[in-house]
Amino acid sequence: QITTLINHKDRPKRSDKTLQAIQRVGQAVNLAVGRFVTVGEAIANENRELKEEMSVACIEARRAGETIAQLTDVASLDHPESDSHITIFTDKTGVVKAARLLLSSVTKVLVLADRIVIKQIITSRNKVLATMDQLEKVSSFQEFVQIFSQFGNEMVEFAHLTGDRQNDLKDEKKKARMAASRAVLEKCTMMLLTASKTCLRHPDCESARINKDGVFHRMRLALEQVIEIVTDSRPNGENEMAPISIYSGIKEFKNKVEGLRENLYFLSKENLSTMLEVILEHTEDFTDSAYTSHEHREHILELSKQAKMELEQLVSVWMQAQNQKTKDLMEDLEVAILKTCQCMNDLKREVHSAATSLAADLLKYHTDHMVLKALKITGVEGNLEAVAEYTCKLSEQKEQLVEMCRLLRHVSGTEPLEITCIHAEDTFHVTGPQIISAAETLALHPSSKIAKENLEVFCEAWESQLSDMSLLLREINDVFEGRRGEKRVYLSLPRPGKHNANLKALKPVKLDTEEQAKIAKLGLELHLLTSDVDSETEKWEDQENEIVQHGQGMSSMAYSMYLFTRGEGLLKTTQDLFHQAEIFATEGTKLASALHALSDQVHDDKPLLLLEAEKLISMCKQLQITAKASAQGKSATFTKVDACILKTRNVMTLLCQLLPLCCKLLRKTKAGNGCLKPAPPWKEDKIRTATNARTPERRVDTFGIKSLENHVTNMTFLESK
């Protein structure tokens, strides 16, 4: 809008339409600045240390916005009495100055707000670390219950803050690293509970202590990595070492080779030779691996030898072409470039085949989890010899899976997927020994229910990571073949004339500052709930499940309503919002029907499921009644907007509880289409890169906030145990 004002053409004749358009733009800028500054001032009031700086920046922004509005007040220019009025036509430099001041002050507000967000995350992390120190030292179960409840609440707060930050990150590598760290924190929070309980129950057990220490150590590392990402710093000023893969090496090498077509002198032959040497060194990870097939090993060695020969030929022709640019030599150079690049493509295809075929075989072989089942059985029997035998087998399995992740990293194709492979490798490397220590504890105390529960938790983490690897493998293959995952598009939007004959006549009702602040708060709550619902739906392996589809649709519509509270998105008028609320309520009713169908398949908790379904129907009916009710006047319309968003929020809160319940019931009965699996960080990237994302602004990455909150709520039952 500012660019439009500054770039407008000074014409002698100005039509009324032009004058009105300029005035509308100026007023729109001023209104937008007003909304922006209102938020900035609210932030300033909550953060005393930056209040003065923030207030000054907000005042400057507001003044600049008002100046732009005054200079664009040109609607009355044709009247003689307004000849002395200074406008954009008589003082264009004034608009330029005001625009510069506005952009400068707005940038300052954003920078200050960002500092506050970073400080909030650091403060939240420090609270978590302090409570972890207390948890590590407790000696009584009652004290542990109290402190863990506090710890759970602090982790929920940290989850919300880091989830929002992850959404805001622009760097894909940082986003992937943040997702990996938050996934560790989510899983380790549950592990910390059972490992600590086991240690309290068996204080003299060395394996129980080792098990607990491992969880605490891993959580501290994950917390530290989150802060490194947020503050963009490394301890002791170290530089981050980017993971080097064969794919990235080949891509860079080919770019240099193909660059010779444009410039024969932009790099030396030594540079090109060094790049190839690095790539071929990395192929040794495949040729030296005990798990690479003989056929793949031979092909990789042959292609490596061929690549050296092709580069020698290329360098020879290249050097000649530098001395004498003849047509024949340039044609020979083109042939050498093509042959070198083709050889590198063949090498890339071969290592991809070697890594993915190994991964597919290993995942298929370990899908029955026989070793984990055997450890559980022999642990309950107290058979120490058998446990020792199966821990050796688990160690072998761990080495295989770690090697698989290392090879997949080379062929992952994107930096976020590389980071996900590194995270998976670390997970197997750490979780394997933790399962072993948990199994040893159970074997030493075979009648201990808490030791059995602890082993179950670590085994579930292992199974979860294996499941994630299957999905990761699919994504790596998609990238290699040029495919990208697509997210279902679901946004029911009102269209003028289709749903309401009078819709064109309706105008958006302007909200005053206080009303904007109130709606903004409700909108943020709705935003967090959509993140939680998305987190739950993304855990379902069968994305075609009817319950998942309805849940995703409702989340998408709730997100569009959240955007409305920010003055963004496709819902432009209050009538758009009311219609969206009606469609949302209809979708909720359809979900209730799906829940009734599910209740016919299950036995456990059937009354609870039916009760929740009826509650959902009742809430959706109330929302529909509110959305359809007539509202005359500004105050009544705002009340209706507030009520619609509030009731949508209540439905989304219920939905957050329903999704995990449904999956739990499906698990128990082994029926239905859905199976709950913890959401892998790489899948967040899949949503992010989807070609058909719900909206350009929509980026969702959360960790299991709701499951954590439920776990904290249920802590009261621990005391009785």
From TrEMBL:
One of its GO terms (biological process) is Rho protein signal transduction. Keywords: Cytoplasm. GO terms for molecular function: actin filament binding. Gene3D superfamilies: Alpha-catenin/vinculin-like. GO terms for cellular component: cytoplasm. It is found in: Cytoplasm. InterPro entries: Alpha-catenin/vinculin-like_sf (IPR036723), CTNNAL1 (IPR030045), Vinculin/catenin (IPR006077). Belongs to the vinculin/alpha-catenin family. This is Alpha-catulin. The lineage of its organism: Eukaryota, Metazoa, Chordata, Craniata, Vertebrata. The gene is Ctnnal1.
